[in-house]
Amino acid sequence: MTRPVITLTTDFGQADSYVGAMKGVILGICPEAALVDISHQIRPQAIQQAAYVLASATPYFPDGAVHLVVVDPGVGSERHPIAVQTSRAIYVAPDNGVLNIALEQDPGRLAVRLTESRYRLPDVSATFHGRDIFAPAAAHLACGTPLHELGEELRLADLITLPNLKPRPEGSTTWLGQVLHTDHFGNLITNFQCTSDQAFDDQLSILLAGERIVGLKRTFADVEQEHLVAYVGSSGRLEIAVREGNAAALLGVDVGEPVRVEGWS
Amino acid sequence: MTRPVITLTTDFGQADSYVGAMKGVILGICPEAALVDISHQIRPQAIQQAAYVLASATPYFPDGAVHLVVVDPGVGSERHPIAVQTSRAIYVAPDNGVLNIALEQDPGRLAVRLTESRYRLPDVSATFHGRDIFAPAAAHLACGTPLHELGEELRLADLITLPNLKPRPEGSTTWLGQVLHTDHFGNLITNFQCTSDQAFDDQLSILLAGERIVGLKRTFADVEQEHLVAYVGSSGRLEIAVREGNAAALLGVDVGEPVRVEGWS
Amino acid sequence: MTRPVITLTTDFGQADSYVGAMKGVILGICPEAALVDISHQIRPQAIQQAAYVLASATPYFPDGAVHLVVVDPGVGSERHPIAVQTSRAIYVAPDNGVLNIALEQDPGRLAVRLTESRYRLPDVSATFHGRDIFAPAAAHLACGTPLHELGEELRLADLITLPNLKPRPEGSTTWLGQVLHTDHFGNLITNFQCTSDQAFDDQLSILLAGERIVGLKRTFADVEQEHLVAYVGSSGRLEIAVREGNAAALLGVDVGEPVRVEGWS
Questions:
Q1: Of A122, A150, A175, C152, whose CB has the highest number of CB atoms within 10 Å?
Q2: How close, in Å, is residue A45 to chain B by CA atoms?
Q3: Closest approach of chain B CAs to the CA of A32, in angstroms?
Q4: Residue A44 contacts C where some CB pair is shorter than 8 Å
Q5: What is the per-residue pLDDT for B171?
Q6: Could you give the CA distance from residue A82 to residue A99 in angstroms, rounded to a whole number?
């Protein structure tokens, strides 16, 4: 068997022992697993941001990877812990929409609720299902336990769907979307997914925060320093940046900021 | 042999090369080790916080794990580098009390001072014993060197003890404790360790920062949004939180804040 | 073959999926690799800081390690992605000077430009060469592909050199250098590289930010609390700290601050 790979995406930060405890649980069940942090700095309970960050990394992992996501405002309430198998990977997460973008790229084939108690820790706390339910499930799946053993099947069509993940039309070629994520450099990643045809479109007009940017460039280096630039980012989405600067700070915008695009087809 | 596991807990942050250099030393000695970060964001030299964060993760690691802790205000002074073996794990740390909580949960059986120079790097710096003494000791232990080879035995009763780790009585059922850790969500973890009987006690009265909270809930979801809630957290301790909010910010409190509990038995 | 080791040093931060995507690419090519983060908190595009942080960790890794560095203000412009083999390691980075200090410690023997498309991802984006060019190159090299297969040879003498990495003379024994890095504790690491003879020099006089510090101590513990102290740090460089305090904050200085040393020989 090839080496199991488990990725972790949470809103736990890295100052506490929460991520470490999850990894301890995993290594007790599946000692050979390679553990890879995608991000633990999702904003607390920001499901849409987590959905984007997860889906921008998963295509680059080898087949068979298990992706564990714990951004879970509903812990302790009635939301269900689930696992979803696709042709390339297995996702383990709360059923709150956080898998929406990943499953659009790589559709689910089988989903289960994580109801089987023998694949949980013996004592399940009320507040830390990441450690007590999700981590052991991910470890068992990575080490070969078939998905259907972990709980009762769930119809894929019944998975929770997030609102506002995609832009909506305002006219024949005008669409209203939003900023999905602001990265470490202050680049703004939007929910406009581009095709390769659009990559160099010099007719698109982008409006946000009172600014208008006309035309897509290939990269930052195609504008002057400290100028705004729009381009198709490394995850295939429309991004707005400032060359050698911070667009989020310059424009004073954050996740959720409306973005209007004219000339989008 | 099963795969060796080494955890790391420090106050080094993650911006510098200090943690990376320690991991390089470890992999040179014990190449198969799985390295797991518990936290590198302990506040500089906050031994009590480190003691808590460490002990809240270690119970979840497989037997035989080596837990390396470098929160070491005394580096370069007379404090001793030590290693302590328990029935489940080995701890490597400065002898400054940072292991107190972990060893209360999982008592020591044998302790040594890390005096043997062949288990150190050839040149020991005055300021970075994490790299030069602690990391090589952890790596040798994880790869099978018996504890007694690393130095002279130290009586377990002679290990340094931290003050104020536990609440003290102020009356027959009133106790004065403190906030031990504020987590990434602003939840306040106190030094009151709860039994399972106490988990739903609706008579307890908790006073901190001029606020009084009456009764323990099962989880955040049992109060309204933005309300204060007290509950037994995932590490078995009394915690105070704000549902979908930040208790540390709301109350303006930090590590060390006094917490009084009435009706504690 | 021993277990491959790959280290990562970037200015990507840890909130986004960028580092995770690079690790996914690596594990798809070289599944057994041990992945070690050195730092992802290099200031955006701070090549000199990255050069220092990298070189302070690499001597502690086992022979054969591959060190991947992506601090790359020139992504999308004409700078070249390169790999350099030394007697102890392989470095993969943009050719922008970020390897200067590491290669001074451990000189290059062979350098290539990463031009061979079969060692890149099939689609190379304009903005994320870390994922599309550097990570696959590091993974192939760690798993045994010979360096010369990755592209055309480059003369070592033609590698880009950074200005201001070393102090320059202002008189026979007075030199002007700078702060290269401020660490998590606020300690100031300068570009003065010390010999072991200098370690306890009590004649040196150090001037920065209007303060004068006379003489080198062995460690922090040799001065009173909250006093300034100069010493030879764990990477062999002249450092300035405040015992149990933060020198960067106290003096209000940052990376690039001039440091004058009198009595340096």
A1: A150
A2: 9
A3: 7
A4: no
A5: 87
A6: 10
